[in-house]
Amino acid sequence: MNSTATQTLAPAAQARAATKIYGSGDTEVRALDAIDAVFQQGKFTAIMGPSGSGKSTLMHCMAGLDTVSSGQVFIGDTDLTTLSEKDLTLLRRDSVGFVFQAFNLVPTLTAMENITLPMDLAGSKGDSDWIDSVVSATGLTERVKHRPNELSGGQQQRVAVARALAGKPQIIFADEPTGNVDSNTAAEILGFMRRAVDELGQTIVMVTHDAVAASYADRVVFLVDGKIVDELADPTPQTVRDQMTSLGA
Amino acid sequence: MLKLTLRSLIDKKLRFALTTLVVVIGVMFVVGSFTLTDSLRATFADLADEIAGGADLTVRADQDFGSDFNRAAVPPEIAEQLESVDGVTRVRPDVAALNVTVVDAAGEAIRPSFGPALGFSFNPEAFFLSEGRAPDAAGEFAADSATAADNDLRIGGVYAINGPLFAEPFELVGVFNFGDPDSHTGLGQTMAAFELREAQRFFGAEDGYESVAVVVSPGADAAEVQARIEAVVGSGFRVVTTEVEAREQQADFDKIVGVFNTVLLVFAFIAVFVSAFIINNTFQIIVGQRVREIGLLRAVGATPSQVSRSVVGESVIVGAVSTVSGIGLGLVLAQVLRAVLELVGFALPAGPLLLRPRTVVLAVAVGMGVTVVSSISPAVRARRVSPVAALNQDSRLGAAGLQRRLMAGGSVTAAGVTALAVGMTVEFATATTFMLLGLGAVLAFVGINIVSPAFAAPVASVLGGPPSALGGIPGRLGRGNAARNPRRTASTAGALMIGLALMGLAAVVGESLKKTFVDVFDNAVESDYFIQASVSGFGPPPGFPAQAADEIEALDEIESVMRFQFSFDGLSVDGVPRDIVAADLAVADDHIDARVSSGSIAASDPLTALALHSDSAGDLGVGVGDTVEATFANNRTETLTVVAVYEDAAVYGNWLIDGTLWDRHFNRNDLSFASALITDPPGASAAVREALARDSRASVEEVLERYPTVEVEDQAEFRQSQESQITSFIRVVEVLIGLSFVIALIGIVNTLSLSVLERTREIGLLRSVGMTRNQLRRSIYWEALIVAVFGGMLGVSVGAVFGAAASLALPESFVQTLAVPWLDLLVFLAISAVAGLLAAILPALRAGRMNILQAIAHE
């Protein structure tokens, strides 16, 4: 993929006036307040914000794990708000990749089986050359026959990223993927995600509260009280930290 | 800590309900069983005096062993002498007979639903007329009100009655209630009553009375009168008071009721045992899931015993709730069973349900005992959790080492098998044998359950092969989940195993019985026709009029008839009562080839002849030509000569005498069975033989038209009806045992629900990466299927081994050949697979309904 071509394509995902309300009346909480956001293809975007800002909710709604109260959410051309639960599941399986903070892998399956899990669930073979190249990019070719409990925390997260990549999804969502690991391991995981964007043309959206992690992204979106309050292109740890401080986080 | 225990119970309502339910079932059967039988006994006790029949004293022949019907008669001279004894107002001689069967207007024999078909001389003191009058002439009879009402018998109607000797028409002149003037006391029997002389003639009891009731004059001292009567009747007779008579009646009744008690308690036992497995398993899982929480409690200062107390505390609450509900449901069960018994003719006057303190104590012991004992091992494991567990992400309970497991389980299993072997081979009192067998079975099951986790994982992996290959990811996950916690899989399978093993045992023994029958039939039986009373209801095997056999024998087409009579404890040798068969020894060799190894059954003097199975001959140390002192159930002793020793006990049992010797010592005249040979004229052509065969059937059936209780079958029919009789008996046993399946099913539901809960986050992950609800559910179905098939295989194998052992241990007169019903065993396996799938429905639905976001965030 080259970057001029992707500019002309539709965005990988976008939110239009996406609103999420929990509760009603006095207890009403607006987790998302008419958010408009666009996530371009082939870009690595970080979503940041203080606790309760709605960053996780935004990601869950964008990924089809949760539904918005009003507004629209698109993955590619597909409006998620029009899909049934079953279609949402299929969309997640075929078009979305996930990396969670922890517990990303099914303990009864080997690393390789975990990587091909979405394809197996779909009953498709997947692109085996592509999977091979993803596996070799993780640097875990020797260990793919092992069960998750035989891998280190960093290795487990790399397998999780590989799984997200393996099905060539339109977009990958990562929720604090380095929240549970030390800084060396975090660097290893984030470096791998960065390479996935640069070398494999993947689109990644990552929720994080760590300025160093956010600095691996092409762009940082800041959320406060369910609204996007700012953006930062080509972030460094320092510029991110300054921005967060100015937002009072 | 108590608050914590309560909190965790309230949080897990479903788990609590299911765990409680399994205990409730066992307690319910215990309470239902004792309450029912206590209530029935109490009701009967109120009636016993009235049933004893309004007399003060009863005179009857002495009897040391055997059935009342085998007691010697009281001669008429004795009865006459009694009338002149000082202080006696009145004497009433009584006679009674078994197998006095009334035929209704439609020509159908009226079969008792439960007990025997009884005939009596009319006894005005115990038979209370509700309609008509007492029979007082030849050709008249009265019937009990239940039989009359159920079969539409009308006063003035003439009905054929099949007696022990012959069939005759009688006119119904009265209908009576037995035991109580207002309501009939039925234990499922039918009752026909005749005038005394007529009864004696019809029953073939002209030589005397079954007993003589004596009414003492109002002013006389009963004890003195009793002493005077004893002096008159001399030795060989007993004079008993009404109290003794009533006590004997009660004892007989208790014996009948005791059967219900035993059957229900066997249920209770199986139910309790299966539920112990499930409770233990549930608590193991709960402790396993709470390891981090327990670690945290320990870290903030809970002592090990506080931790284990909280586990036991939960079990105490489960036990208490199940005991209370079990008692309540047990009372309901007793009421329902009483209604069912009434439906089948077991009619006692309505009485209150009796919940004895003993029953409550037992219920508490069972309900609390089984839960608390089952929670001990999880509690011990809980106290071993260290505070560090709180800090560890993947805290798990350590599993016992493989070697320790094999050692412990192996020795427990071995102890169980030893107890079973001793119980089956050594002769003890029946109760001791049952205790030993029960204990052996329990130990064997527990032992197998200790060992089985050692191979649960590999077996589950192998069983999971096909699902894994065919079922895609759901299949692979199901296999992995079944194999990931061997202990849990093994325990869940263990609960299923128990019921299946017992079913397998019954199936193998049943198949061996059938095979033995077929082998004996094909090799030993030469007869062409088999004549017996049609079987129905739960009564003792019915007999039929001897005259039916005589008439068949008189047919030209019939060469000979062999009559069979049978009695439990008919004669005693060396002080041990023995079951006895009487038959026509002269023709025996034409009908049955019992593999005579020495001597000849067709003896020269049938009145002293005794033929023995080689086992009995060996036990007594006698051979052909030796004499044996035999005491009959009428207390008379004779010296018998051994005329033959045979090897095949399947037809004759161990002890065989001639019909003439039977007639000399037994009052019963009805036949239990007869076989017939078609005439085979020497040198007859095939055409003649064929004609004889055809005509003989028609002629025999013509004779039997006069005896509607009797049926004739040829070889093929007899063989088939006997086989299907064994089969249906085995099926009933299997279905009853199969009830433990329901409990095991609840166990699977419980385990799967807990496992699903435990895997909440994993399920959330799977769903978020695109597993559909159907795929998720399918993975749970696969898991359940693998566990259930594992349990099924364990159960079926254990059952087959137990069944083979039991078949080999059974006396040769029951089982000679071991046969394994492979198809039945496969069907059991399939049933357990289906049961597993059914049990997975609820957990699968719950798993499918989980909210993905909450599941991912689940701690």
Description:
- The complex is a heterodimer of chains A (249) and B (859).
- Chain A is of the alpha/beta class and 249 residues long.
- Chain A has a single domain, classed as 3-Layer(aba) Sandwich (Rossmann fold).
- Helix content of chain A is 37%, strand content 24%.
- Chain A has helices spanning 3-8, 55-62, 85-95, 111-115, 117-122, 128-138, 153-166, 183-200, 211-214, 237-246; strands at 13-22, 29-39, 44-48, 70-75, 78-79, 96-99, 171-175, 204-207, 219-224, 227-233.
- Chain A has a 6-stranded mixed beta sheet with strand order 6-7-8-3-9-10, sandwiched between helices.
- In chain A, strand 1 (13-22) and strand 2 form a beta hairpin.
- The longest helix of chain A is centred in the C-terminal third of the chain and has 18 residues, at 183-200.
- Among the domains of chain B are: 51-252, no CATH class; 546-706, no CATH class.
- In chain B, strand 14 (558-573) and strand 15 form a beta hairpin.
- With 859 residues, chain B is of the alpha+beta class.
- Chain B is globular, with a radius of gyration of 33 Å.
- In chain B, the strands form 3 sheets. In chain B, strands 3, 4, 5, 6, 7, 8, 9 and 10 form an 8-stranded mixed beta sheet that branches.
- In chain B, helix 15 packs across helix 23 (773-809).
- Chain A binds chain B through residues 60, 63, 65-66, 85-86, 89-90, 92-94, 96-98, 100, 103-109, 113, 117-118, 120-123, 149, 163, and chain B through 394, 472-473, 476-477, 480-481, 483-484, 761-762, 765-773, 775, 852-853, 856.
